[in-house]
Design brief:
This protein is mainly alpha-helical. About 40% of the residues lie in helices and about 5% in strands. The protein has five helices and three strands; from the N terminus they run H-H-H-E-H-E-H-E. The chain has helices at about 10-15, 35-40, 45-55, 80-100, 125-145, and strands at about 65, 105, 155. Strands 1-2-3 form a three-stranded mixed β-sheet, sandwiched between helices. The chain starts with 8 loop residues before the first helix and ends with a strand.
Length: about 160
């Protein structure tokens, strides 16, 4: 990331929202419901690769983490795309279970992802947030619990 001295919140917000009003997304109401056909059509080919990579056993410890992205870069809660992403996360949690690896989800609406000043753009967070995430991963692995402040959710605990 650039030096903190180069940070420009107005430029960041223009990159996050474009010409849209600066307001956080709301959940779709009523929420979408995936049909069995839609659900059956969801493919995540990189997950086979991930499973194989972990199975090689070249790692001292595996922790699977979904990093935080700004809520404007996340799929609208209640949408088909959000359901598809939830299925992807569930399949990654199953991979974690096969390899006894914790799975931690920071890619949720939280105090990290709803604050524009935490980001350089919709995907890249600032150094202080990287440090917060690193501390969060350490706590999540140690406790096996969701963050009381809402920064992360445990999708799979370590064994």
């Amino acid at each position: 990331t650039p030096q903190e001295s180069a940070y420009d919140l107005a430029k960041v917000q223009a990159g996050i929202y474009g010409s849209r009003p600066r307001q956080l997304p709301v959940a779709k109401s009523p929420p979408d419901i995936a049909t069995p056909e839609q659900h059956a059509s969801w493919r995540f080919p990189a997950l086979d690769w991930l499973d194989e990579l972990i199975a090689r056993g070249k790692w001292q410890r595996v922790v699977l983490v979904f990093p935080p992205v700004h809520v404007m870069a996340q799929h609208q809660a209640g949408s088909i795309r959000a359901l598809e992403e939830a299925e992807c996360k569930a399949r990654i949690a199953a991979i974690g279970a096969r390899h006894k690896a914790p799975v931690i989800d920071f890619r949720i609406s939280s105090g990290i992802t709803t604050k524009d000043a935490n980001y350089w753009d919709p995907l890249h967070f600032r150094v202080a947030i990287a440090e917060r995430v690193a501390r969060g991963v350490t706590r999540a692995v140690a406790t096996g619990r969701n963050d009381p402040g809402g920064d992360w959710r445990i999708l799979r605990v370590a064994e």
